[in-house]
Amino acid sequence: xxxxxxxxxxxxxxxxxxxxxxxxxxxxxxxxxxxxxxxxxxxxxxxxxxxxxxxxxxxxxxxxxxxxxxxxxxxxxxxxxxxxxxxxxxxxxxxxxxxxxxxxxxxxxxxxxxxxxxxxxxxxxxxxxxxxxxxxxxxxxxxxxxxxxxxxxxxxxxxxxxxxxxxxxxxxxxxxxxxxxxxxxxxxxxxxxxxxxxxxxxxxxxxxxxxxxxxxxxxxxxxxxxxxxxxxxxxxxxxxxxxxxxxxxxxxxxxxxxxxxxxxxxxxxxxxxxxxxxxxxxxxxxxxxxxx
Length: 292
Description:
Blueprint (H helix, E strand, L loop, with lengths): L2 E5 L4 H15 L9 H11 L3 E4 L9 H14 L3 E3 L1 E2 L7 H10 L4 E4 L1 H4 L6 H13 L2 E4 L15 H11 L8 E3 L11 H5 L5 E3 L29 H11 L4 E2 L9 H9 L5 H16 L6
Parallel strand pairs: 1-2, 2-3, 4-5, 5-6, 6-7, 7-8, 8-9
Helix pairs in contact: 4-6, 6-7
């Protein structure tokens, strides 16, 4: 069972515009059209059995509609499992999280960069506390964001403060720090998060990221460092967290699924360890069995 724990889709009517805008902001290529159908087809081609979809509310008034659509996605697409979204400025965030739980949604996505608040801000801490009580998984962007150079609302030290404040023993909060815990500041992640209960996902952290090419080429990355984790860098993080706390993810549509899978399969790990990273750990965290 292969689970992609980190993907994005957009409503059909805005998917083309959304992907085009994000490509322009990040100066990087996309590998699917950003629709649920497109992601389903990508999964089929890559041999991915289940993809977790992570919507982001950039304003409080988007939250309820996004979460209704998440529930609809879960009914319509057997190979997709959408999380909900929550915004720190939503006045009735606790009530909405209870509604999310009632809708049968497994977790919520937060994005402190897009939502304009530090993850250890009191408003986010309250959200994390409610999620811990409800058993909802929380996944956050971790580290720098390619579309917001120099903006750091969810660095590894901030993530540490947030989870330690809400769940000092690491036993109740199910928390995932995306992009291997801190995009492009991975050297801080083992010290800051290794002794917590935080999971990492591998999305947009391995292999290559691809600048715009062809007639979209804008030259933005000429002469700039475009490094991602190589095998040695990944294994340093792996040794700190182990296969029981690392989740495969692609950040679709922003990376090539085949290349992301090939990176994991080429690691110096046992087949069982690879299987854990590629799906077993995710299924356990989600509370699913392979027959579901």
